[in-house]
Amino acid sequence: MRKLVFVGLLVARKGVLDLLAALAMPGVMPVDGRLTVVGDGPQRGEAERLVEEGVLRGKVEFLGFRADVPELLLAGDALVLPSSMEQQPLVVAEAMSAGKPVVATDTGGVADMVGASGYLAQPGDVAGLADRLRALFGDPDPAGIGRELASRAQARFTPEACARRHLELYEGLVK
């Protein structure tokens, strides 16, 4: 099975409706594909209705808010974050640390976080998001991408790496 995980508020700027539209496009969601939606918000009712009335029926699970996000990311195969606006989302760093591929929109610092190993679409581009999802599902070695992202996360997001970068910044300022 191929299990995608979305984590976030179910509000317009997080793009959950765009994600559902992309997954519903012909040839995107594999027969064994599933999506777990972690979070809640004003768009939940509409999202659940779209799933129940469309081709994604039985393929999407809505969990609401959860405290066990790291475990849910580990249980999934990839993170999807189709936001129209982000800065440096913690959930992307968590997915990378868990060795999971990331399909996201090129907004804020996301592209810098995932580098060339991420699957990026433009915000609001449902067809582009669908293409990136197809690319993920068609990748012969998604675990290899996950390993690359885990290594990148280890080098950039651990407390030690952050402390080292801050120290370098401060040393540069005092010189």
Question: What do these coordinates show?
Answer:
The chain has a single domain, classed as Rossmann fold. The protein is built from eight helices and six strands, in the order βαβαβαβαβαβααα. It has a six-stranded parallel β-sheet with strand order 3-2-1-4-5-6, with helices on both faces. The longest helix has 16 residues.
CA distance, first residue to last residue: 54 Å
What form results from the Cα inertia axes?
Answer: globular
Low-pLDDT stretches are none
CATH architecture: 3-Layer(aba) Sandwich
- The CATH topology corresponds to Rossmann fold
What's the helix count? 8
- Written as H for each helix and E for each strand, in order along the chain, the element string is EHEHEHEHEHEHHH
Full CATH superfamily name: Glycogen Phosphorylase B
Q: What is the radius of gyration computed over CA atoms, rounded to a whole number of angstroms?
A: 17 Å
Strand arrangement in the largest pleated sheet: 3-2-1-4-5-6
Percentage of β-strand residues: 15-25%
Helix content: 40-55%
Q: Can you tell me the number of structural domains?
A: 1
Mean pLDDT: 94
Give me the count of strands. Answer: 6
Class inferred from helices and paired strands: alpha/beta
Largest sheet: 6 strands, parallel
Lay out the secondary structure.
Elements: E1 2-7, H1 16-24, E2 33-38, H2 44-53, E3 60-64, H3 69-75, E4 78-81, H4 90-97, E5 102-105, H5 110-114, E6 119-121, H6 126-138, H7 142-156, H8 159-174
Parallel strand pairs: 1-2, 1-4, 2-3, 4-5, 5-6
Helix pairs in contact: 1-6, 4-7
